Amino acid sequence: MSKEVSEEGHQVHHHGKDYTDPPPAPLLDMGELKLWSFYRALIAEFIATLLFLYVTVATVIGHKKQTGPCDGVGLLGIAWAFGGMIFILVYCTAGISGGHINPAVTFGLFLARKVSLIRAVSYMVAQCLGAICGVGLVKAFMKHYYNTLGGGANSIAPGYSKGTALGAEIIGTFVLVYTVFSATDPKRSARDSHVPVLAPLPIGFAVFMVHLATIPITGTGINPARSFGAAVIYNNEKVWDDQWVFWVGPFVGALAAAAYHQYVLRAAAIKALGSFRSNPSN
């Protein structure tokens, strides 16, 4: 092991590092199951995803029930609803659960050893259950419009192939997860401390921008819980046929973002090989 790896793993500051990387999470941490903080985090993820789906899917249905071309919030307003809710909910839950609200984000952070396997799987289950309940509330409150206007469910738009939709979901999720890593990177925070940035802001803005690009293609998934929750409640054959795209795409995008940030930008692969020892800032 090189001296740099020792510095990363044991937080030694021989080269004057002004930031501290947290130790990697264990793969299986059974001790978490005995902690109230673990279950509190699951509750936070469940409620946050419920609120996220309720507000955003209600916005989609509310827009679609308008008859005039200038009525409703429009696609721009839908994108703001998704991005704005992520900003609000990440801000509210970051200190409790980390504010994932998305299985793809959880998966990316698991790959980067930020959360254990037990926490990652538990978060994904809580997120999917929260999404189902959130969309269920929309259907309960807007049943007629919900059933006749698509249920806010993700599916591939006419004129686009499954390959195109998959690519859009991969790139869109890459943008989101890459932003999550960058916004929460302790090295970036130390380096750019003179530019204070509230982490939920760029994350929410990334969701907003991705929606602008991909709503016409897939309705924008980039969140398997969001797509799954809407599919369960709407229960349409076309939606289920396309569902795999909204799981495979986000998970591949999250994997790519985690690898890019950890092994290229943070040079974890180079440090593991002991190369470039003269430039520890890489």
From TrEMBL:
**Coiled-coil annotated spans:** none
Report membrane topology. Answer: Multi-pass membrane protein
Write out the entry's keywords from A to Z. Answer: Membrane, Transmembrane, Transmembrane helix, Transport
Spans traversing the lipid bilayer: 38-61, 73-96, 116-138, 197-217, 244-265
Q: Which PROSITE patterns match?
A: MIP (PS00221)
Provide the protein's localization: Membrane
Q: Where is the composition biased (Basic and acidic residues)?
A: 1-11
Q: Which GO terms describe its molecular function?
A: channel activity
| GO cellular component annotations of the record | membrane
Q: Where is this region: Disordered?
A: 1-20
- Primary location: membrane
Q: Which NCBIfam families match?
A: MIP
Q: Which family does it belong to?
A: Belongs to the MIP/aquaporin (TC 1.A.8) family. PIP (TC 1.A.8.11) subfamily.
Q: This protein is called what?
A: Major intrinsic protein
Source organism:
Macleaya cordata
